[in-house]
Amino acid sequence: MRRPLLWVPLAGFGVLLLIVAVGLFRPADRAVHSTLIDRPLPDFGLKPIVPGKPGLSKDDFTGQPRLLNVFASWCVPCIAEAPQLLALKRAGIPIEAIAIRDTGTDVQAFLRRNGDPYDRIGDDPASATQLALGSSGVPETFLVDAKGVIRRQYIGDIRADQVAGIVAAVEAAR
Amino acid sequence: MIRPLAVTLLLLAVPVQAQTGTPAPLADTQLPDPRQEAQAKALMETLRCVVCQGQSIADSDATMAGDMRALVRTRIAEGQKPAAIRQWLIDRYGRYISYDPPLDAATWPLWIAPALLLVLGGWIARGSFRRSRGR
Hints:
- The complex is a heterodimer of chains A (about 170) and B (about 140).
- Chain A has one domain (about 30-174): Glutaredoxin.
- Chain A is built from 5 helices and 7 strands; from the N terminus they run αβββαβαβαββα.
- Chain A has helices spanning about 10-25, 75-90, 105-115, 130, 165-174; strands spanning about 45, 55, 65-70, 95-100, 120-125, 140-145, 150-155.
- Chain A is elongated.
- With about 140 residues, chain B is mainly α.
- Helix content of chain B is about 60%, strand content about 0%.
- Chain B is built from 5 helices and no strands.
- Chain B is elongated, with a radius of gyration of 24 Å.
- In chain B, about 25% of the residues are buried.
- The interface of A and B includes residues 35, 74, 125 and 133 of A.
């Protein structure tokens, strides 16, 4: 075989096979991450959505690290996440919330059924604050430090095996 | 017989319920000024829906895309420039959100690839024409 060009198609096929194999065994991360990590919270001020619980604004994130949970009563994974949020609350971590496209009665029913880990809940009827945060769905949870700087973003429902890691991350943010 | 059917139907109903929530007023309502609406529409066609990532927010039926359309229309109506709105979203979601990549250090292969492929095709064609003429 004196014609090396003959091997180019086979080599090309080999490269293609490799790319497909890598994609198959290590699928790419398709989640859209917020680019606001290590940057201050955007300005926002949200009205309360349930009676007896204050609304939420940027200025509430002072004094100590807090979790900011983006949720909705119509969101099924938010139900799966509820026990983990209650566990984090029991661990002494304050949790604030933003309710997306929701109504007061629905949120009240959701909290009655699944437990209430929240100190404040802000009403975000058209996802405006969610978009300002770079959040792409519900549920999502941000770790915000005592200076109001976003430290981490947890996309999707928080699983039981993530709780210890989140507690450690909150401690590290103190 | 009826009960298993009912249970199956109930299970099927859950994913539909996950897409509820009323969309924002401007999600599916055009702006009164046609020039502004055209600007907003052009921008919406080049912004990615973050829920259904293969679609633009102009094409997507996701409620989140509706809220993003409302955001675009509200800001256009306030007199903001489309480029500024795109940049505002890029600052939050990264460049993935835009379907209109700028020419820079990271994207030049994307822009130059068609020209390179055209040159390569011309070179291959020249070679094969010359061979057939020789025969």
